[in-house]
Structures are given as C-alpha cells and as structure tokens.
Design goal:
single chain, about 110 residues, mainly alpha
C-alpha cells in the first residue's frame, strides 16, 4: 500500500490481568467516581451504582477509561472504544496465558520490535 492508501486508523488491543487485593477499596473508588459524575442520567446512575457495588469486576470496568490511556498521546484522537471485565482463573505458568499467542507471532514490525 502506498502512503496515500494507508488507513489513518489503528486498532490497539490491550489485555490486562489484574489481581484485586482489596475489593472494598475498588468498590469505594468506583462509588466516588460515580458520585462526581454529574452528567450521568439518574436511571443510569442507579443501575451503575448497583453494578459497581455488587461486582468488583464491574467496578474496575467503570474505573478504567480507555480515553485516559491515550489522552496524553500527541497526534491521536480516540474514535471508538469498548471494554469489559470478568473474573477469571489465572495461572501465569500455564501455556494458556502465553502473552503473544494471538498477535501474529513472528511479525516483528507489528509487535513494535522492528
């Protein structure tokens, strides 16, 4: 592809595995952020408050904002984002958790190595 035909859009895939050491602190942080959100409609606020209170994974999903990840990067503008969270069984020594399994192993340029 020539420079003129190359898309200006880039899909950045990020997968994180977090160890929650204090569920209460995560829940409180989500509740504090929710309390500061003045633009959230009341019906949505009630639903979100229930979700972040009942499920730590939901609280984390509420706290992690993709815009925060790229807002300081010069020359880019976030166009679309989606994210979710779920509780998982995690064994870092398992081959199931190979960090590079899905990203086109051997494609050094895509991995940022080339």
């Amino acid at each position: 592809m020539s420079a003129e035909e190359t898309s200006h859009f880039v899909r950045l895939r990020v997968e994180l595995v977090l160890e929650v050491q204090d569920e209460g602190e995560v829940t409180k942080a989500a509740q504090r952020r929710l309390a500061r959100d003045t633009e959230l409609p009341e019906a949505e606020r009630v639903q979100t408050e229930g979700a972040v209170t009942d499920d730590t994974a939901e609280a984390l999903a509420y706290l992690v904002d993709p815009f925060d990840l790229v807002s300081g990067v010069p020359g880019v503008e976030l166009q679309q984002a989606s994210w979710s969270s779920e509780r998982i069984d995690y064994d870092p020594d398992s081959p199931e958790w190979d960090l590079y399994e899905d990203d086109g192993e051997g494609d050094e340029e895509e991995d940022g190595i080339g």
